[in-house]
Amino acid sequence: MKQLLIITILTFASIVNAQEKTSLTLKDAIKYALENKADAKKAKLKIENSEYQIQEVRSRALPQISANGNMTYNPVIQTTVIDGAAFNAPGTTIQAAFGQKWTSTAGVSLTQALFDQSVFTGLKAARTTREFYQINNQLTEEEVIERVANNYYQVYVLRQKLALVETNLKTTTKVRDIVKGQFDNGLAKKIDLDRMTVNLSNINTQKQQIINSVQLQENALKFYIGMPIDALIEIPQSEFEVTPAAFTEAPNVTNRTEFLILKKQEELLELQKKSVIAGYYPTLSLSANYNYIGQGAEMPLFAKPSNGVYWSDFSSIGLNLRVPIFSGFGTRAKVRQADVELRTIQEDIKDTQLALDLDYKNAKTQIENSIITLQNQKENMRLADEILKNINNNYLQGLASLTDLLDAENASIEAQNNYTAATLDYKLAEIKLIKSKGELKTLINK
């Protein structure tokens, strides 16, 4: 019984812990995504893989050593016809068989490239590829940060909207209860109570729709940060700040990751062109080998001359020079193809530079307009709330009709919804401005 009780308590404790909510700030969400999201992990794996690519290319400049061995059985040995004069039998022809029934060879060979322009160019290209993947990793992280920030703010704004609806629900419920009390005392009409009931039902429906939207948006956020969908998260309440300080001088787009990655691609294509041009260069290599051969009428393994098997060694050292003379204009065609690819990426660089300038200008304009809209909607919400309080007091004193009260409530709800929408627009515009300045990683330090 004691053991059963302990197991029950531990099980209950684990269930309680599993249901605990995780407080998730924007900084926490971004850090979690960079550590757990598949896109970020794969970008880091590409950097790791680039190190192995460098090692692969470097191996071409190092000695290539291999061991070899074979065993051959010749059921029928080929004969060769030779002049008998070599054996003091002029005028005769001798048909002789050269070789043995069994031949076994074992040896080691070495090849060392002394000059190969393509190897040198390949090493430079491999190092540049590593730098490319490092920049690509940075770009991937920025894309992850942007997606997480956008979804995070959408969840936050929906939660704010839900809080406003719950406040409206409480206020409307109180008014409905007052109208019901008046109706019970014969001081209000049934149609007034019905209208309040319908209004309350509409707000409840709106609340349920927002709860559903919050759940869907939270699931999207958890997906974008690589968190289990079943995890419970809590977005801390905090005030959004409008930061005019964000309007600094136009950024240098040549420092943007999108621009840097294209420049690195241009560098890679230049090296690719040089690698093709290397086909015009001669190559020089050193080769050496040492072998041991056994021949006889029996299987050579473990056999000795007494068994009719004879062993001997042989070796060679050589320089191998290859000078390309004519390749049917194939190399020239490859060089021209590489040149076209290089000029194409250069056009992409020019176009991207213009696009990045446009992004900044549009982001700056958008956030300026968002700030104005946000301030106007905040004032509208304040006025609508003040009007609602006044009309509510007047209604309780019999100085305003129920229609006026309902209209004021609807106007207040609409003003609140407009303000939350303007808040979201502002935060999304802020993300675009930060991105256009190449400062998305500053969100981690907030």
Automatic annotation (TrEMBL):
Family matches, as Pfam families: OEP
Signal peptide residue numbers: 1-18
Keywords assigned: Cell outer membrane, Coiled coil, Membrane, Signal, Transmembrane, Transmembrane beta strand, Transport
Matching SUPFAM superfamilies: Outer membrane efflux proteins (OEP)
Compartments, record wording: Cell outer membrane
Membership in a protein family: Belongs to the outer membrane factor (OMF) (TC 1.B.17) family.
PANTHER family reported in the protein's UniProt record: OUTER MEMBRANE PROTEIN TOLC
Protein name: Transporter
